[in-house]
Amino acid sequence: MPTVRKEIFIDRPPEQVWDAVRDVGAFHLRLVPGYTQDTLLDGNERTLILPNGDAVRELIVSVDEEERRMVFAVKEGKMPLLHHNASFQVFPDSNKGSTFVWTTDFLPEELAPQIQAQADRVSAVIKQTIENAN
What are the chain's domains? Predict the structure, then answer.
């Protein structure tokens, strides 16, 4: 099973980064405004509404406060996924900021270029959004 791992530095303390990541119902506001238009929560299921009207349904698997780790799995979306699970994890960085790590395991393997491109693009938006937040 292929894995895409994206690691970025965010110039904000880990507590601030984690506060945004753990707020699973405000994904569209706190992490990726403009990239995602709305976030709907129904128990552990999250639906991301994209600007073009498409939707991605996800299962929130875990929000681990101690590890600063949030795990989710895509249940339904535009990509023809056979399997998808991912985690966002926040670590303290020696430069007084945070290291944000996004790890995704998925099938089929042929989607690797698309998933890598998405992780690159969305991580840049997450970094900018958190660094520009008050």
Answer: 3-132 (3.30.530.20)
